[in-house]
């Protein structure tokens, strides 16, 4: 069965966010093949939108999988649900958010899934951790990851030192 390299953004700001990310990483091991799982450092970030809520803990995981895009989406959403994810409010607080950022070099646009993830080029909490685990990555559009990261973005995030 063919494998494909994927990248997933992880975020949490409820119910001990660091432990939520740790549990999500453990769950991702089950869908990663060949011990391919790489995980960035954890970062603190401010929430998006106007909803008053705690800061987030974010990371990015990269791994190889044999799952097709929708099957992978289903697996990610199952992990979110197992960790108590409830979708009540757009950009609201959450126990866990797993976003499929990249599925190889494919462009996917179906009702349930858009890849590359629609907001990844503007989000420091995605770009910085992604660059940490794959600094020479080029996106499907031909843009280098490093060219998207500004000094301001680097200043926005605080690496969680543990």
From TrEMBL:
<dbReference type="InterPro" id="IPR035907">
    <property type="entry name" value="Hppk_sf"/>
</dbReference>
<keyword id="KW-0808">Transferase</keyword>
<keyword id="KW-0418">Kinase</keyword>
<feature type="domain" description="7,8-dihydro-6-hydroxymethylpterin-pyrophosphokinase">
    <location>
        <begin position="90"/>
        <end position="101"/>
    </location>
</feature>
<dbReference type="InterPro" id="IPR000550">
    <property type="entry name" value="Hppk"/>
</dbReference>
<comment type="function">
    <text>Catalyzes the transfer of pyrophosphate from adenosine triphosphate (ATP) to 6-hydroxymethyl-7,8-dihydropterin, an enzymatic step in folate biosynthesis pathway.</text>
</comment>
<comment type="pathway">
    <text>Cofactor biosynthesis; tetrahydrofolate biosynthesis; 2-amino-4-hydroxy-6-hydroxymethyl-7,8-dihydropteridine diphosphate from 7,8-dihydroneopterin triphosphate: step 4/4.</text>
</comment>
<comment type="similarity">
    <text>Belongs to the HPPK family.</text>
</comment>
<protein>
    <recommendedName>
        <fullName>2-amino-4-hydroxy-6-hydroxymethyldihydropteridine pyrophosphokinase</fullName>
        <ecNumber>2.7.6.3</ecNumber>
    </recommendedName>
</protein>
<keyword id="KW-0289">Folate biosynthesis</keyword>
<keyword id="KW-0547">Nucleotide-binding</keyword>
<keyword id="KW-0067">ATP-binding</keyword>
<dbReference type="Pfam" id="PF01288">
    <property type="entry name" value="HPPK"/>
</dbReference>
